[in-house]
Amino acid sequence: MLKEWISDLKPTDEVIAERLERARDELAARQMKVKEKGLPVLVVLDGWGAAGKGSALGKMIKNMDPRFFKCETLSEPSPDEKRRPFLYRYFIRIPAAGQFAFFDGSWMGEVTSRFLSGETSKKDYKTQLTSVKRFERQLSDNGCLVVKFFFHISEKVQKKRLKALESDPTTAWRVSDRDRWQNKHYGKCLDVYDEYLETTNQFVAPWYFINSTDRKWAELQMTEILISAIDTALKNTENRSVPILQNTFPLSPMPKLSSVPLDKTLTDEEYRTELDRLQMRLKQLHNELYLRKIPVIIAYEGWDAAGKGGNIKRLASALDPRGYEVHPIASPEPAEKARHYLWRFWKRLPKDGHIAIFDRTWYGRVMVERIEGFCTENDWQRAYNEINEFEKELSDWGAVIIKFWVQIDKNTQLARFTDRQNTPEKQWKITDEDWRNREKWDLYETAVDEMMQKTSTEFAPWHIIESNDKKYARIKALKTVISACEEKLKD
Amino acid sequence: MLKEWISDLKPTDEVIAERLERARDELAARQMKVKEKGLPVLVVLDGWGAAGKGSALGKMIKNMDPRFFKCETLSEPSPDEKRRPFLYRYFIRIPAAGQFAFFDGSWMGEVTSRFLSGETSKKDYKTQLTSVKRFERQLSDNGCLVVKFFFHISEKVQKKRLKALESDPTTAWRVSDRDRWQNKHYGKCLDVYDEYLETTNQFVAPWYFINSTDRKWAELQMTEILISAIDTALKNTENRSVPILQNTFPLSPMPKLSSVPLDKTLTDEEYRTELDRLQMRLKQLHNELYLRKIPVIIAYEGWDAAGKGGNIKRLASALDPRGYEVHPIASPEPAEKARHYLWRFWKRLPKDGHIAIFDRTWYGRVMVERIEGFCTENDWQRAYNEINEFEKELSDWGAVIIKFWVQIDKNTQLARFTDRQNTPEKQWKITDEDWRNREKWDLYETAVDEMMQKTSTEFAPWHIIESNDKKYARIKALKTVISACEEKLKD
Question: Does any CB of chain B come closer than 8 Å to the CB of residue A381?
C-alpha cells in the first residue's frame, strides 16, 4: 500500500505556514480536552531513517503542555527488556488517561528490522504481526487512541540526506549503520514495510503516511491528522461498545464448580512426606528452568479463606528467593486505573528464567469487576478473549502458565470465617468485605464457571485445587506446578 | 486463519437444546429493538457447499417477524447484473434502517470462485479484495451492522454429505458442479478461502467461523453470535464518530471558485456551428461506446439558475434515447434515507455501454447536507473519501466519469432569479428555497472549494463550466464529454 500511495498535493509555502500556525494552536486546545475527557493518546512515529520524524515531533510538541505528554525514543531494547515478551517495553509505556505518549520508533521498526536481518523466521514474523495487531486492537478497544504515522521519503532523498548528515562532523553520529543498510537495500525494505503496513492497517489503528520531503509540510500533515483523530476519539469516549470477537484458541473442557467433589484429604503423615519430596523436586526444576531461561507464571484465584496464602507459602518456600516474586494483587491504584487493565500485570511480568506468583490476578476483570459493576458488561465480555490473547503472548514468549482455582464449599468458608473472627491473631484476615462477598457466592460461582469455560486454553489451562483439606490442596498445587514444568523442560 | 482455527468445545445435546431455545427467543426480542433503534443488520452466510448454511438460516429465522427481514440467495449474477460493477447487486440489496437482510452466499463466493477458476487474475483479485474491504467498511461506518459467518466442515464431512444428497433423487439437484469441484480441490480452496478470510477480517466486519459438523450446534453458534453482535451495535447507534481516513488517490489541482474568470462568451453564430458539429461527434462516440460496452457517468452540480437544465438538454439531445438516462436528484425518499447515502446512486448506475446523466449528485452529502446539518460533521468529513472510493469502483469497472461544476457569479444568479420571477412561464423554476440558498452563497462556496480540492481525482476529475454565458457553457460541456470519451476509446 505504501508503494501505491500517492500523497496529497503539496500546498504553497504560504498556505503551509498559515495552516501550521492554526494547527499548532488547535493541538494545544485539544490537549486540554483530552485531559478533561481522560482520553489516552498514543502516537507512533515510524518511517525511513533521516525522514525527519524526530524534528517533526520536536516542533509539534513545542506548543504542548509538557506535563501532559511523554516522548519515548524506542530503538534497541535494553538487556533487561530483552528478557521479556517483545511487546513488554511498549506495553509498560502506554499513556495514562488524559495523557499523550509519543513513540519515536515503535514495534514496527523492531519487528521489521529483525525480519530483514534474518534474525526472525518467516513463521515467527507472522506470529509477531498477529501479536502487534492484537496489541493495537486491545489498546483501542480499551479506550486508547492509537495514531500511527509512517514518514516516507524516496531512496534518492534519503541518500542525499544521509550524505549531508555524514559530511558534517556535528551530525555524522546521527547516521546509524541501520540507516546506511536501509538506503542500500531500499527496495527490499520497501517490500517488507509495504506488507507490514498493509497487514497492520487496522480500522482501530490505521496508518497515516506522511510525505516527508518537505519538513514543514510533514509537520503540518502530522498535526492536522492528529487533530482529526483526536476529535473523532473525543466523540466516542462515552458509551463505547466493542464487538465481542470469537474465541479461536484451543480450549480444554472444565467441570462446573458445583460438580467438583471436595472430600479429598491427606493424613499429616502423607502430607509431610509428600511435601518434602515435592519441594525438593521443585527446587531442582527451578534451577533447570533458570538455566534454560524459561519463565513461569503461576496465577492463584479462589474463594476468600480457601487457603491461597498458605498454599503459595508452601510453593514459594521451595524456590530460590533470587528467582521468584510473589505479587499480591489488591484493587488498582490511580495510575493503574488510568490504563488498560492488563497494564499492571504486564509491568509485573518476570524476567526469563524467573517465576512470578500472582495472589489474585487479571481475572478480577471477569469476577469482582463484573459483579461489582466496576467495568461495563461489554468490557468484561470482551475480556475473556483479551486475557486469552495476553496468555497466548506469554506462551509464545516461552512461559509456563499455571492457573489455580482454589475451591472450597460454602460451609467450609463459614467455618473458617468464624474461626478467623474468634481468633485474635487471625482477625486481620477477615473484613466486612469478605462477609459481603460471601453473600454474592452464587453470582461469583456463575462468573467463575463462565471464566473457566472460556479461558482454560491448552497453553494456559485452569486447575481446580480442592481445598476443603488444605494439606491435600498444597500437595496438589505442588504436583501440578512440577508436572507443568517437567512437561515444558522436555521440549 | 481458518486453517489454524480451533472451534469451541461442543456442548452436550441437552445444553445445546436448552441454549437454542433461549437464543431463539432472545433473537426475536432483539428484532424489536433493532426496529426501534433503526439499526440496519446485514448477515452474510458463506462457507463450504453442503455445510448447512441454508438449513441453519431457515431455522434461525423461524421465530423472526417476516416483515422485518429479507433473505437473498446470491449465487450467479443475472445477465443484467453482469453489466454493472461487481458489488452492484450486493449494494442495492443492503437492508434499510431497522431491517435485517440475510445473504445466503455473498461476494466472497463470487470473488473467490472466479479466482479459483482462473477467470480473475491475481492482480484483479487483489483489487477486488480492496473493493470488498471498502464496501464492508463503508457500510459499517455509515451505521450498518455487518455480521459475516463462514460455515466450516472438513473435506471428509463434505464428501459424505454430498454423497448422501446425490444418492437421494429428491435432493440430488441440490449438489452443484461447483460443490463437486470444491470437494475435489478442497485443499486448494482452503488455501484461497484462508487468505480471503484473513484479508477481509476487519474490525468493522469481523468473520465468525461456525463449526458446522452438527446442525443444531451450528444454528446455536450463529444465533448466539448474532445476538451478541446486535447488542454491541445497539449500544453504538448514537453519537458514533468514525476515524477520517487519509486520502490515497491521485488528486488533480483545482482552482478556487473565486479565481475563475467568467467573461468567456460565444456569438450565436459560433454557438450554432459548434453545437451542430459537437453533437454529431458525440452521437458517433455514443455508438462506439455502446459497442465497446463502456459506461459513462456524467455528474452535474452548480449554482441554482446556473443553467444545468439547458446544458443537460443539449448533451442529451445528441444521444440515442435507448442508451442514456437522466436522473434528476431531489431530496432522498424515506426508503433512501433509511440506507447508506450512496445507495440511491448505486441503484441508478447505468448498464455497461450506457450513459447516465445525474442532475445533482452524491455530492449533496458535502454541500447541502453539510450546510443544512442533515448529517453530522463526521459524516460529511468522511464522505470525501467514501465518494472517491465509490468513483474508484466505477473507474475500475471501466466507466468514464465526468463531473461538472456549472459556475456563475452572484449577480448573474440574481438577474436570472428576477427574470424567472417576472416571467410567468418560468415561475415554476424559482422557489423560496432558491432565495434561502442564495443567502448561504458564501457557505456553499467554501464547501464547493473544499469538495473540489478533495475529490478531483485523476480517474474522476472535476470540470468547471463557466456559465455566465450559457452558450459558452454548453459548448464547453460537450467538448469535455467528447474528449473524455475519446481518451477512453483510445485504450
Answer: yes
Return the residue matching grid coordinates 511498549.
Answer: A90
Diameter over CA atoms, chain B: 88
Tell me the CATH number at B90. Answer: 3.40.50.300
pTM for the full predicted model: 0.85
Separation CA B464–CA B254 (nearest Å): 9
* Three-class SS state of A347: coil
Residue B23 lies in a domain: yes
CA dihedral B13, B18, B20, B26 (to 10 degrees): -170
Q: Which amino acid appears at position A163 of this protein?
A: K
Q: Which of A6, A242, A251 sits opposite B248 (nearest CB)?
A: A6
Place of cell 516542533: A59
Give the DSSP H or E segment for B407: strand B400-407
Distance (Å) of CA B344 to CA A51, B13, B406: 44, 47, 23
B259 contacts chain A (CB < 8 A): no
Residues A265 and A169 occupy one common structural domain:
no
- Given an 8 Å threshold on Cβ–Cβ distance, is A378 in contact with B238? no
Q: Which positions in chain A touch B248 (Cβ < 8 Å)?
A: 1, 4-6, 209
Tell me which residue in B5, B137, B232 faces A243 most closely, judged by beta carbons: B232
Q: How far apart are CA B198 and CA A154, in angstroms?
A: 30
- Alpha helix stretches (DSSP H) within B326-365: 334-337, 343-346
Q: Do B225 and A246 touch (CB under 8 A)?
A: yes
Please state the ipTM of this predicted complex: 0.74
Give yes or no for B5 touching A (CB within 8 A).
yes
**Is the Cα torsion angle B110, B112, B117, B118 positive or negative in sign?**
positive
In sequence order, which residues have a C-beta less than 8 Å from that of residue B316 and are 6 or more positions away?
Answer: B324, B326, B357
To 5 degrees, how large is the angle CA A38–CA A40–CA A41?
Answer: 135
Chain A interface mutation, best of B4, B6, B12, B458, highest count of A Cβ atoms under 10 Å: B6
Going by the DSSP 8-state scheme, the letter that residue A366 receives in this structure is G
End-to-end Cα, chain A, rounded Å: 40
Q: Tell me, yes or no, whether A272 and A391 share the same domain.
A: yes
CA distance B471 to B453: 27
Per-residue pLDDT of chain A (491 residues; tens, 9 = 90+): 888 888 888 999 999 999 999 999 999 999 999 999 999 999 999 999 999 999 999 899 888 888 889 999 887 898 999 999 999 999 999 999 999 999 999 999 999 999 999 999 999 999 999 999 999 999 999 999 999 999 999 999 999 999 999 999 988 988 999 999 999 999 999 999 999 999 999 889 999 999 999 999 999 999 999 999 999 999 887 767 888 999 989 999 999 999 999 999 999 999 999 999 999 999 999 999 999 999 999 999 999 999 999 999 999 999 998 899 999 999 999 999 999 999 999 999 999 999 999 999 999 999 999 999 999 999 999 999 999 999 999 999 999 999 999 999 999 999 999 999 999 888 888 889 999 999 999 999 999 999 999 999 999 999 999 999 999 999 999 999 999 999 999 98
Q: Which residues pair with B407 in a beta bridge?
A: B466
Q: Is B73 on the interface with A (CB under 8 A)?
A: no
Residues of A in contact with B209 (CB under 8 A): 246, 248
Q: How far apart are CA A70 and CA B315, in angstroms?
A: 61
Question: Which residues, other chains included, contact B78 with Cβ-Cβ below 8 Å and sequence gap of 6+?
Answer: B89
Question: Are B203 and B350 in the same domain?
Answer: no
Note whether residue A114 is domain-resident. yes
Residues A219, A290, single domain; the answer is: no
What amino acid is encoded at B172 in this protein? A
- C-alpha span between B239 and B143 (Å, rounded): 11
A247: in domain = no
User: Residue B377 belongs to what domain range?
Assistant: 257-490
**Which chain A residue has the Cα nearest residue B379?**
A232
